[in-house]
Every structure is written in structure tokens, then in C-alpha cells.
Amino acid sequence: MRLTDILHLCSQNLWRRKSRTILTVLGVIVGCCSIVTMVSIGSGINEMNEQSLKQMGDLTIINVYRQGGYGTGFGSSTSTGGSQTESKLDDKAIENFKRIPGVEGATAQMSLSYSVSMTAGNGRYITTYGDVQAIDMTQLGNMGYKLTDGTAPTRDGEVLAGQYLAYQFYDKFRPEGSNMRYQPQDAGDGTYWTCDSTGNCSQVPADQLGEESKPFFDPMTTEITLTIQTGDDSSNGDGMTMGMGGTSGAIGSTGTGGADGSTGSTGSGNTFKLKATGMLKEDYNKGTATSSGILMDITQLKDMIAKVDKSAAKTATYEQALVKVSDIRQVSDVEQQIRDMGFSTSSYEEIRKQMEEQSRGIQMALGGIGAVSLLVAAIGITNTMIMSVTERTREIGIMKALGCYVRDIRIMFLGEAGFIGLLGGLVGCLLSALISIGINLVYMGGISGENIWHAIVGGENVTRLSVIPWWLFVFAILFSTLIGLVSGFQPANKAVRIPALDAIKNEQ
């Protein structure tokens, strides 16, 4: 028999008992739909976990410290190098990091440890806090720093401003209580929490944010004057630390300003005019300067320290470095290689792995529940095919008597079973996609063109409760087809074992 003849017989036989076939296919649809929907919820939980981590910072950044070095980033897990010999975290080590396979960029990171103050708008706007950090600006793009506005600095005196730097300043000409502007907090639903000077907070839509929610000035168009205070009580001896900004705060200390908040001459203060050429996007995993500070080139910061403190020790080693990995799946391997060099590291990798394992466990549990439905469907396919063989015993005998090959009879029954599984898988996947979109729309709060698009493809800041990757559809269709073939294997063998003469004598 030709393949087309076999396929024609398969469709003819299935359509002959269409009610039974439809009910059997329906069982497969329910089973397939259950598995895909359950697993998609587990995938959605995993996506939600990753979105939460991304809000904390870049998941592909590794913080590197000298062995026994201080502090880690917020939410980070710490690992200690396996080597007992302390390695120097210097320019040579940075170059070695860059040569590790999978590393996209690496840079030392320094933080100014002196007390500082900053003014803007000809001294009208003041802050006695300043988080000043520095990296190798040639690595800015490689390290994944993002700008919300402007470009990277190229000349001495040019810097990058943190996304919310301007909110650190107060207006010395306004009365106390109204001389500060408070940063609106994103509520995640298209609205923002805003607070006034009395501490009263309210939730308003993004398009209704008024002037009182904006800072007093724009750092991109306003020159900033940085004043660095030196003294025995404000320096650690070498004039710098290389960390995530935690040490630049004792800032707001006495001696940084006069009674009206203006920069005074107490101590050996030194001022520097800075121009912001770009605005950084907040990312705490790269340092708090991305949020409320200033980021400059590492050479520029060293020159500033040399000018303000002649006694500052010249050093070629650093306390901390940042390493950017090209793929999140390579973070663990790169981190281990850095530890083997004798350094301590911290990243979000351990937290991410724990969340991923939890999500995988949830996926397996939910998938197991859905698999029960598919098992019931498999039993239904087997029952349908056994009944089909019993009803068509005489037909099988005639086919054998006419010289039909045994393999053709087996292929015919397996084809019928496989088609039931394939059709059920296709319809089940289509139904699962619709259910997934519906779950996401309910989770997102309603039907709209934007929500429908985000429910299907997601987005940068979009959180979905149900996520169906393309491979899950392929797996579900192939698995349903396989279930059909396996379920039809025993009835097909039963059909080919029936003797031709006995089958012809059968009255059915």
C-alpha cells in the first residue's frame, strides 16, 4: 500500500466513529493543555524572580575584592577565593580578568573617602553629601552602564551624574520644610508615590506629576562645584577607597559649609568645577553613584586626590573591581576562575540559582499534576484503538487475504493513534496560549492593546504570571504525538497477530 492510501484509510476509519474520536482527542487536549499551562506558570514565577533581581542590579556583574576585602553589594552573595595567598588587585589583575573567556569588560572601582560638599546654581543649591566614584571610562560601554540622557565624558572636568543626584540638593533660599524635593517612587502600576515636606504621601499617575515632584535644577545644564575637605579625621591615609560608595558618606560633617550652607573655608578645602555630560541609569550593583552620586574617570579622581592632599600615598592597588560577563550562564564559571586567582567575589548568582531551583521545583510539581491528565488521555487512546481493532477484525482479515503487508496494517493503526495525539497536542497548545494570555491580562489589570502585546511577548519592565517558551509548544506537540503512538502500539500488534482465516470468519 502507498503511504497516501494508508493515510486515507486512517482518516476514513477515525471519521467513521467521529463521536468516539472527538472524545478521545478531547482527553488529549485537556492533558496537553494542563501540562503547558502548569509549566507556564512555573516559567512565569521564574521570570518574576529574575525581574526582581534585575531591579536590584545587573545580574552579569561580579564584584571583585582583595581576599578578606570589605563589604558586598546589596543583596549579593559572597564567595572567598580558594587560594591562601593574597593577590594584588592592580592594573595587571584587571587585564587578567579581561582575558578570561566570557568576560566582556573589567575595571577598577574607586570611591573618594574624603568629606565633600557640592553646590549648583551659583551656590544656591547645596548638598553636604556626595558619593564620588570612578572607573575606567574606556570600559563604560563594556561594563553595561546605561545612560538616560547625554553621552560619556571625554575631557577632564566632565563627569556622569547619578539618575537622582539632583534630589540630594536643597535650596538655601527657601524656608526649612519646603527647601527639599523628594524623589517620586515608582509604584509599578503606572503611578508614583510622591511625598511633600510634611511627610504626607499620595499615589498619582505618571502624567500628573507636577513641578513639585521635580528637582530644583537639571544636572545636565547646571555646573556643579565639588568641594573636598582634607584632614586627619576625614582620610584613611591614602585618600581613597575602592568600594561601592559606602565610605564616602560621613559626609555632612562639620567644616564643609558655613551657617547658610554655603561652602566655607574651614580646613584645607579644594573646589573643582564639574560638568555632567550624561545621566546614569540607576544600578546599585555598579555602585550607589549611579543613583545619587557622581561617576568620573579613575585617572581624573587620582589627579584630584593628588591636588587636595599632598601626603596621600601613591598606590597602584585597589580595594574593588567590577567584572562584566557577556552571558548570565557564564557568571558562575568566571567567578570561580577569579576566586582561583586569590580574590574574593560577590554577585547575584547564588541568589539567582536558588530562585531558579525553586522555580524548577514548582514547574516539576505543576507539570506532574498536568501529566496525570495526559496519562488519563493515553488510557483513552488505548481503549479507543483496542475497540477499533475488535470492530474491524473481519476487515483486517480481508486485507491480509488480499496480500496487504503486515507492516502496512501496523502503520495504519499507529497512524490513527498518532494522529489523535498530534491533533490533541495542536489544539491543546492553541488553547493553552489563549489561557496564558487571559491569565496575564487578569494579572496586569485589564484588556488593552498594550497589555495584550505585553501578555504575549513580555517586555523590559513587564511581569507576566504565565510564560510559554517556544520549546514548550514543540515539546507538548511531540510528547502528545508520542503518547498516541505508544498507546496505539499494543492494539496495532494485536491487529497484526490475528490470523487471516480466523479474522475473515469473524462476524464483526
> How many helix segments?
12
C-alpha Rg (nearest Å): 34 Å
Shape: elongated
* Beta content: 15-25%
Q: Which range best describes the helical content: under 10%, 10-25%, 25-40%, 40-55%, 55-70% or over 70%?
A: 40-55%
Number of domains: 3
Task: Please give the alpha-carbon distance between the first and last residues.
Answer: 24 Å
Mean pLDDT: 77
The largest pleated sheet is described as: 11 strands, mixed
Structural category: alpha+beta
- Low-confidence stretches are 70-78, 232-268
Number of strands: 19
Transmembrane segments: 21-45, 364-390, 411-439, 468-489
InterPro entries: ABC3_permease_C (IPR003838), MacB_PCD (IPR025857), Macrolide_Exporter_MacB (IPR050250)
Subcellular location: Cell membrane
Protein name: FtsX-like permease family protein
How would you explain this protein's 3D organization?
With 508 residues, the protein is of the alpha+beta class. The chain has three domains: 3-55 and 354-505, no CATH class; 60-101 and 318-347, no CATH class; 110-163 and 220-317, no CATH class. It is built from twelve helices and 19 strands. Strands 4, 5, 6, 7, 8, 9, 10, 14, 15, 16 and 17 form an eleven-stranded mixed beta sheet that branches. A hairpin with a 5-residue loop joins strand 12 (191-195) and strand 13. Helix 9 packs across helix 10 (449-457). The longest helix is centred in the C-terminal third of the chain and has 43 residues, at 349-391. The protein is elongated, with a radius of gyration of 34 Å. Mean pLDDT is 77; it is low at 70-78 and 232-268.
